[in-house]
Amino acid sequence: MDLSPLQKARYEYQPKLPSMLRHEIGEIEAVEGKTTESVSDQEEIKKLFPNTYGMKEVEFKKGKSHAKKRKEVVGVILSGGQAPGGHNVITGLYDALKKASKENVLLGFKQGPSGLLDDDYIELTDDYINMFRNTGGFDIIGSGRTKLETEEQFAVAAEVCKKHGITAIVIIGGDDSNTNAAVLAEYFAKTNSGVQVIGCPKTIDGDLKNDVIEVSFGFDTATKTYSELIGNIERDANSAKKYWHFIKVMGRSASHIALECALETQPNICLISEEVEKKQMSLSDIADVVVSSVVKRAEKGLNYGVVIVPEGLIEFVPEVKKLIGELNDIVALKKDEFNAISEWDEKYAFMKKNLTAESFGVFASLPLEIEKQLLMDRDPHGNVQVSRIETEKLLIALCEVKLKELKKEGKYNGKFSTLSHFFGYEGRCAFPSNFDADYCYSLGYNAFMLISNGYTGYLSTISNLSKSADEWKAGGIPITKMMNLEQRSGVKKPVIKKALVELDGKPFAYFASHRDKWAVETCFTFPGAIQYYGPSSVCDIPTRTLSLEHQE
Amino acid sequence: MDLSPLQKARYEYQPKLPSMLRHEIGEIEAVEGKTTESVSDQEEIKKLFPNTYGMKEVEFKKGKSHAKKRKEVVGVILSGGQAPGGHNVITGLYDALKKASKENVLLGFKQGPSGLLDDDYIELTDDYINMFRNTGGFDIIGSGRTKLETEEQFAVAAEVCKKHGITAIVIIGGDDSNTNAAVLAEYFAKTNSGVQVIGCPKTIDGDLKNDVIEVSFGFDTATKTYSELIGNIERDANSAKKYWHFIKVMGRSASHIALECALETQPNICLISEEVEKKQMSLSDIADVVVSSVVKRAEKGLNYGVVIVPEGLIEFVPEVKKLIGELNDIVALKKDEFNAISEWDEKYAFMKKNLTAESFGVFASLPLEIEKQLLMDRDPHGNVQVSRIETEKLLIALCEVKLKELKKEGKYNGKFSTLSHFFGYEGRCAFPSNFDADYCYSLGYNAFMLISNGYTGYLSTISNLSKSADEWKAGGIPITKMMNLEQRSGVKKPVIKKALVELDGKPFAYFASHRDKWAVETCFTFPGAIQYYGPSSVCDIPTRTLSLEHQE
Hints:
The structure is a homodimer. Chain A is an alpha/beta fold. Chain A has helices at about 5-10, 40-50, 85-100, 115, 125-130, 150-165, 175-190, 220-240, 255-265, 275-280, 285-300, 320-335, 335-340, 345-355, 355-365, 370-375, 390-410, 435-450, 505-520, 535-540, 545-550; strands spanning about 30-35, 55-60, 75-80, 105-110, 120-125, 170-175, 195-200, 245-250, 270, 305-310, 420-425, 460-465, 475-480, 485-490, 490-495. The two termini of chain A are about 45 Å apart.
């Protein structure tokens, strides 16, 4: 393996643990707090989790350990999309486990949850794990999107655990994966298998968040990487003074990434999906927001700017949401008929016949390329692949039409040359920032503390994150505490509540109070590349979102 | 102005000068070397530059300065596309000029060469210049693409210089801008205006290079930024194991950027335009190179990978070059007729009628979107905008057709899911790496040394760059030394010879000797983000290209 200079240097980095986890393992006590309830639907969720509902919050403190004295055989799984720091969760877990006893074993199941079902694993060793310390990616054991949710799967998993004498499974994943972790924990408890399940909160999207989980890991590094690029583009726009850059960033359901990048870079416009939904904005309304900035800046001779667009935006536009829903239904109901059509004109006519007049109106108003993306690119279930829709280009096209009109009316006399970008894959596997490296290592280390203290159905939590690492707190919360019931494919299911951008929260409030100025003036800020070394003010800074949320 | 933590920290960075420039200005002597000749067409170029041809190379050494004792009023101009480090050229120039005498003045002409013609400038002061130290972008005075090339323009420039008592102009630009700098220097010499002209070698493309100019500035930072992103994507590909990523990188004429990124990241495939031209490869040949890797990796169960594509690639494909030439001619000759057509089908028919059968065959073989890009997106002169053509998507489409065929024949049984990216604007305005910060500061500082020693028509040179900064050499070469005659719009013109990737050079040789392995195995390397702090092995490394070229 050829290593870059940075990779070699990062191997030497020793992630920072919260001070309470720096004691000898025998001197760390699990202190239990209040009994918990789920965030809503308490009765129903209690019924679904008779063995793991209503458990107590846990915090680790210096004291006398009551940890079990047994050999631990832990299986670890990476689930879902990559997020920087995943490797450090595993190295932290490994280091704690080996510190407790050299006899303990860590098995890594390969390519996600399917590795557990297929009994496809490797035993992690010093030599192997050292190659992944403080690096990005999930390639240490790979990841996958198989969902662990059926009784049949659980039975297979139980067999595999029994075979290897596994005492606990650690699942590193997002809201869905941790929901499944809770169901698996309940199954293992119900069947007295003796296997514990601990989750770790991963997702660059930042939507796995609540009063205890202050942020999911990877959000820090991914947003810093996107902000680096957006800042560079802003500086280019400000130097060349001739392009409007439309930049789409990842974030399917929640706009946390877009918002954080906006706070870091102060672009002219940043759209927030949650606000679009709340205000029931149409595509035309959204374009108006951008056009207003373009026109006002043109009046000042500034024919350039930067617009940030969250990936999931159009799903939050009520008229488009309705259109996509109808499209999915039609293609599902009349699958064969639709698939038999090869010519575009016929497909178009088919849609005219089958969509409601309102939705067809929206469809017909879209640029041809977007219409094609809506009809052509479908996922294996036949659904529109929203992530493949080039929302940034759609927005450009909508603005062009409006600006042409305004020009005719003599209300606009600028130039509107555009460039579009999409940043997503660029940030998911970056070397974790010091924050994510420390946070993830602590999450993994702490997951072992929960295991050895006998907990199951818990999420590993490290909190007080806006402070320096030695002030961080370590503990665990029952996953059921974060649950509510939601309609999924027509059935009410217990799931972890997704944390969307709160329009009355501090990060959005800060943005909202500055954006009018940013829209017209040039207030760009340039964060630059993530620094792993240098002054602490440069290399140890949490996100603006986290700082604002936990401002005193 | 709101500043990021990194920007504040970078203000404190003191760029490193070559040791010979660290002496007091009165202790630096200009030592003249050999008389120079242009690289070819010596007689013709000598005739065109009677006053500035055949001057001697200069190197600065410790000794007794013979610099002129006069008040210097220097005008500085940024020309062409942004490149990281431009601000440092200006701060280096400013610091040397003020060190020589507080009376000296630096004027910055705004938005490129047009600022000189419009007499649009600002006088640079400590407070203003300090806001731009070690930052990216050209926003200190802006840049532009106006060309200084006519006698009328020169006369206006002379007037403006006279008005301000300007003693020298420093032009920071690429090969074209420095060609114009030489012509301007000749004009000023011929007319005895007393104004000197000094150029500085800028361009991220890396194609302004010869035995004295080891690299143009900005190449280091831009390629490191692209390599960061490519490495992150490689790690993502290697973790998810489901996508082939096609990544286009800037570099219109030369493939230095693509090659450097390949050396840094070891992708499965990197295409090199110069090789495509040399081997007279067709689009189909190029697709075969990629397909071969896709098929071989699929046999090993590796249905993912990374392909780097240089921006200018298709112009180097003989059949496409011919097609583009014909398209440009047809649209120029039959402009009104062509512009009157609005429907796509008619445009297509028009092309069928007017293109040669061979070129129409190539045109018709392209995906619809690319056909449209060829006909629709045209620059102000009516030419095809090659940079807007989505070569990366074209390549994907070509590979899909071939793989489908191979699947039918039972010769391929993999999956080919693709994603495409284009990196260009992301790297042009990054904070300059320590290398570019030091190099640019030295170039600017050294430009003042050339001015005060009375030189004109010279390019500021800092060489021995693969060594540490204190071993760097400072001097100047006559721009005419780098010139040859080339056909431009039907006329033979003296221009600086563009440095393309040498297929017998060491960087390409290294790549060529490893690429067969990279194509089949997974040899990705992950450079990570540019580091400005930390171990020198991490934050002071030159490009692989420079290291290989100057390997001893």
